[in-house]
Amino acid sequence: MKKRWIVRVIIVVFVLAAAAEAVWFLAPDLFQARLPEGFIRASGRIEGRTVEVSSRIPGRVVELLADEGQELAAGDVVARISSDELTAHRRGAEANLALWSNRRRQAELDLNLTRRRIESSVSQAEAVLAAAEANLGWAAAAAEQAELDYARYRGLAADGVVPQVQLERAELLHVSARNEAEAARQAVRQAQLNLVLAEELRLTIDLKREAVAEAERMIEAAQAELEAVEARLADTVITAPISGVVLERVVEPQEVVSPGTPILTMVSPDDLYLKIYVPNVEMGRLRIGNPARITPDAFPDERFEAQVTRISERSEFTPKNVETREQRINLVFEVKLGRIDNAERRLRPGMTAEAVVKYDDSIAWHSAGS
Questions:
Q1: CB count, 10 Å around CB of 150?
Q2: Which whole number is the average pLDDT over 119-142?
Q3: Radius of gyration of the CA atoms of the chain, in A
Q4: CA 35, 355, 344 angle in degrees (round to 5)?
Q5: How far is it, in rounded angstroms, from Cα 269 to Cα 69?
Q6: What are the counts of helices (DSSP H) followed by strands (DSSP E) for the chain?
Q7: Contact by Cβ (8 Å): 326, 316
Q8: What is the C-alpha to C-alpha distance for residues 267 and 64, in angstroms, rounded to an integer?
Q9: From CA 92, how far away is CA 67, in angstroms rounded?
Q10: Is the pLDDT of residue 29 over 70?
Q11: Residue 230: phi, psi to the nearest 5?
């Protein structure tokens, strides 16, 4: 007898629960105060725009410094990647840079030595030419004077004024001066040729200078290669791109990742929104920018300012994981309430909340009890 009574009580409880759920969907206003015209009430979950923190290079995760739920500032180090390939590439780039730096020093030394040697040769050739030209001037003048003396002695000898021996001596001096003048001319021509050859050696300086320039170009290329490797090695240190909260650690230490592999998923507390679903019959009242007030279940006595930031262009059936005050067979539109005032970072993704949206600016908030 007692057993039957217990069974009857259980049946009554289930019937009452089913009736309450039906009333909740079909007549929700019986459970909460009916909103006046100008307001829409809806429930949903707080979400945020997520950012995937990924690796730009392949390698092994040697250190993971962030845990799920941890709050990070933009720029905080969250992971370190080890890349043997990049490390070897850097050593090769450093060796190549050192090689061409050494070659440039050698080329510069060779250029300076060559320049000094050639400039010294040119200066010496110019000095020899100047001396040869001066000697030619003296020899030419002496030859001219000897020729004049020889002509004068010939006339005197013909008149019998001077003896024959003086004429012969004048002739000998004339021939000797003429030979010396010719030798001086030959010396000048040789000095001129030597100067031309010395000056032509300056082309060697240009070649040595080009060797220095080539080494400098190779140094620039090696430096650029090293900087590129260093930049890629900098990617082994992964930092948080935004200030936010870690939602999920996708990988663990010692796992090998490829470029683009997500390591963490983050969300910014400054860019949260409440996703609600509004029945089709009420959609014509909402506009982008309509103000809203959100009441999280975690803070039932508080209100957080927000506004309508997105209204879906297509209707859909209410998702099964979202509770609404209308029958689930009704068509609804997804609406996002963004720009939530979360300066104190108290709201977090995943919190359930109720929202009241005001679509009539002429009505005060206190009319809705908010």
A1: 19
A2: 90
A3: 51
A4: 140
A5: 12
A6: 4, 12
A7: no
A8: 18
A9: 37
A10: no
A11: -60, -40
Quick: pLDDT tens for 89-105.
889 999 999 999 999 99
274 contact partners, CB below 8 Å, separation of at least 6: 44, 45, 46, 47, 292, 294, 306, 336, 337, 340, 353, 355
pLDDT in tens, 98-129: 999 999 999 999 999 988 998 888 899 899 98
Across 145-154, 211-220, 264-273, 324-333, least confident range = 324-333
CA dist list (Å): 207 to 88, 212, 220, 282 = 35, 9, 20, 85
Q: How far apart are CA 137 and CA 337, in angstroms?
A: 106
Cβ neighbours of 181 (radius 10 Å): 22
CA dist 125 → 57, 120, 182, 197, 353 (Å): 64, 8, 20, 9, 99
Q: How far, CA to CA in Å, does 124 sit from each of 21, 128, 130, 133, 204?
A: 115, 6, 10, 14, 18
Measured CA to CA in angstroms, residue 22 lies from 16, 30, 325 at distances of 10, 12, 10
- Nearest Cα neighbor of 354 from 343, 366, 368, 367 is 368
Q: Which residue has the tokens 């100067």?
A: 195
Q: Is the pLDDT of residue 210 over 80?
A: yes
pTM: 0.53
What is the rounded CA–CA span in Å between residue 33 and residue 23?
A: 14
What are the structure tokens assigned to 319, written together? 């998702």
From the list 342, 273, 327, 274, the residue with the least C-alpha distance to 43 is 274
Residue 94: Cβ-neighbour burial (10 angstroms; 0-12, 13-18, 19+): middle
